[in-house]
Amino acid sequence: MSLHHKTLTYTSPVFRLFRNVGAKLRMVNNNHLRVLIFHDIPPNQEAAFQRQLVWIQQNRRIVSPAKFEKMISGDEPVVGDNVLITFDDGLISNRTVAEKILNPMGIQAVFFVVSDFVEIQNREEAHQFIAKHIIPGAKKEEIPKGWSNMQWPDLEALLEQGHTIGGHTKRHARLAEGISNKELVDELIASAEHMESKLGNKVEHFAYTFGDIDSFCQEALSVASRKFKYIYSGVRGDNAKSVSPLAIRRDAAAFQDTSYEYVLFNDNLLDSFLGGAADFHYRNAQKMLDFWAQSINYK
């Protein structure tokens, strides 16, 4: 755990106290709309994941994608402390935790998947794809053994269970400055249209890969906005205060250890993030996303 994360963990109770007092005195807004990012949930973390969802439900309201759509679009007011659950990359553990944990708890989530990754038929090829595209620089042998990809039947099952499938590019491409318009159309629009043809369902949600502001650009957002109604970043922040549906903020809920396994943040650290304790670190990125979205809206 980094020094920054340790500091947030230890100061979380104090920050929570000030936040609660401020809300009671009406000095701070008590209405929030946050989005959490998960990736792989390995079997040894399933119990911790379920316990953490219970903890979130005790302190906040986990909303469905349909409810989130209404709130982020301004069709319904944001009242109280609301959280949307999302998963990135399309790893097979996502279906497992959906059926074992989310569904019994009545939680609906958004699963952002890489369309070329979904096409893969065996674990060996899946590990090659992950090492080349999802964790570039990693060796195939270093990819966690349990990792594999969801395939089309898995996505169909999630849709039948009430979840939402979103786009996450064709090849998990980094959509930064310098990528051609042709590549953007292929990664964003053609990829989503292929998913729609396979699933028979509209794909209106999209999360760009890697999540940081340097992995995206205004041209990519412009192309994505031609296909998707809801576009998500990995930039931390609250979506309650007139945030554009094209510039949605999200909070990572886990970190990768040295063996690339995802480890859930502890409750205090997650509470700090959901309470906005780290948002100021992302002010410039938030402003950039908002500027890009406003430029599209003004066209």
CATH architecture: Alpha-Beta Barrel
**What's the gyration radius in Å?**
18 Å
Counted beta strands: 10
- By DSSP (H or I, 4+ residues per run), the number of helices equals 11
Mean pLDDT, to the nearest integer, reads 92
CATH topology, by name, is TIM Barrel
Largest sheet: number of strands, sense, barrel closure = 6 strands, parallel
CATH superfamily: Glycoside hydrolase/deacetylase
Derived from helix and strand composition plus strand pairing, the structural class reads: alpha/beta
Helix content bin: 40-55%
What kind of oligomer do you see? single chain
What count of structural domains? Answer: 1
Quick structural summary:
With 299 residues, this protein is α/β, with parallel strands linked by helices. The protein has helices at 3-24, 46-59, 65-72, 93-105, 115-118, 123-134, 152-160, 181-199, 218-224, 267-274, 283-297, and strands spanning 32-38, 61-62, 81-89, 110-113, 164-167, 205-207, 230-232, 251-252, 254-256, 262-264.
Please specify the SSE layout and strand pairing.
Elements: H1 3-24, E1 32-38, H2 46-59, E2 61-62, H3 65-72, E3 81-89, H4 93-105, E4 110-113, H5 115-118, H6 123-134, H7 152-160, E5 164-167, H8 181-199, E6 205-207, H9 218-224, E7 230-232, E8 251-252, E9 254-256, E10 262-264, H10 267-274, H11 283-297
Helix pairs in contact: 1-10, 8-9
